[in-house]
Design goal:
The strands form 2 sheets. Strands 7-6-5-8-4-1-2-3-9 form a 9-stranded mixed sheet, with helices on both faces. Strands 11-10-12-13-14 form a 5-stranded parallel sheet. The protein is 28% helix and 22% strand. It binds flavin-adenine dinucleotide (FAD). The site of flavin-adenine dinucleotide (FAD) has 27 residues, from α6, α7, β13 and α9.
Length: 332
């Protein structure tokens, strides 16, 4: 059975809405790269549930095996289950995304298993020793960190610095490793009373699943309500190009691009954006890009999966109306 050993790399995946997100696939790719360097295997650990057709999905993204582990989505129970797994199998590296889940679970795992943890890494190199690189001083400096001893070493990775991927290989299947579901009951100090999905408008644009982005072609201040309504109907976060921010239509935290945020969305609808390199640097990791532009020669169409030559100011209100009608009819 693969998935344990002092050269192996493990990645923490969350069983969310079923499938693997773009960030999960990036984490698996990074895990694969490091496992190959170390000469070990890559295993995914999935606490609290299942990923749909995990054998195929994880295998195609580069994993050799996976552990469906217990612990649910309670961070203390989850950390306890992971600690016993890590202590049993002693992988060389255990990586997670530096998102809300990773930031909640990994420090608890480090404390429970008495292991070193480096958070928010932008790079990890594996040779004689493991070198973790993280941005410090607000990104002005990079710190290189090594952990004493031979491992296991824990790290969380900035989702914006994960490697771009090759097309997945559908032929590869990951091996399922059975694990005891919840382990020993433990005393917890945390009661989760309820979980409330954040309104898309309040989600960090870099982490939003769906994004509507506006450019200088449509981002006049009096137009914002039209696009905000569309974003709301889509369950999307609203962002934009630099001119949309410079004009005061959007706050700086909503800027996309080289000097703004990088998106990890599954879908982005790009309205009235020409597609300069400074902007497209921020949409490389988007799953599906739909661009709406009046100019059929706009460079953004080269980056888009679907190109719509249209006046967005006319198209978007009609789409919003249609989405509202569908919502009223119960999605029929
Ligand atoms: C150092 C530096 C850093 C930068 N960083 C960033 C960055 O991080 N992010 C960023 O975005 N930019 C950045 N820029 C600016 C960048 O170079 C471009 O100027 C900017 O991205 C252009 O924004 P835009 O596409 O919204 O506007 P434009 O280039 O003006 O394009 C507007 C588009 O809207 C279309 N259009 C007009 N009306 C409509 C309509 N009714 N419906 C549909 N389409 C319509 C037009 O055909 C056109 O293609 C940076 C520049 C520099 C020098």
């Amino acid at each position: 059975m693969s998935g344990g050993g002092d050269r192996d790399v493990w990645v923490l995946l969350r069983a969310g809405d079923g499938g693997l997100s773009a960030a999960d696939k990036g984490l698996l790719r990074e895990g694969r790269r490091l496992a190959d360097k170390l000469g070990g295997a890559l295993a995914a650990v999935i606490p609290g549930g299942e990923i749909v057709d995990a054998e195929t999905a994880i295998g195609a993204a580069g994993g050799d095996s996976f552990f469906p582990a217990g612990g649910g989505d309670h961070p203390e129970r989850c950390a306890a289950v992971l600690a016993s797994l890590v202590q049993r199998h002693l992988p060389r590296l255990f990586l997670a995304l530096a998102d809300a889940f990773g930031a909640d679970v990994m420090p608890r795992l480090a404390a429970a298993a008495q292991l070193p943890l480096v958070t928010n890494c932008v790079d990890i190199e594996a040779s004689e020793e493991i070198i973790f690189t993280k941005a410090v001083q607000g990104g002005r400096l990079h710190a290189a960190i090594t952990a004493p001893g031979g491992g296991p070493g824990l790290a969380t990775l900035d989702p914006h610095h994960l490697p771009e991927g090759d097309a997945p290989s559908a032929a590869r299947r990951a091996e399922r490793c059975e694990v005891a579901s919840d382990g020993e009951p433990i005393d917890t100090r945390l009661d989760i009373v309820s979980r409330v999905k954040a309104a898309p408008a309040s989600v960090d644009i870099g982490e939003a699943e769906f994004v509507v982005a506006i450019g200088s072609g449509v981002a006049a201040k009096e137009n914002i309500a039209t696009y905000a309504r569309f974003a709301e109907a889509m369950g999307a976060a609203l962002g934009g190009s630099r001119p949309a921010v410079d004009s005061g239509a959007l706050p700086h935290a909503r800027q996309i691009g080289q000097t703004g945020k990088s998106l990890t969305a599954r879908l982005a609808i790009l309205c009235g954006i020409s597609g300069s390199d400074y902007f497209t640097a921020g949409i490389q990791k988007v799953g599906t890009k739909i661009a709406v532009n009046t100019d059929r020669d706009a460079p953004i169409f080269k980056s888009a999966d679907l190109a719509i030559v249209a006046d967005a100011d006319e198209l978007i209100p009609r789409l919003t109306e249609r989405l509202a009608r569908r919502a009223k009819e119960g999605g029929a």
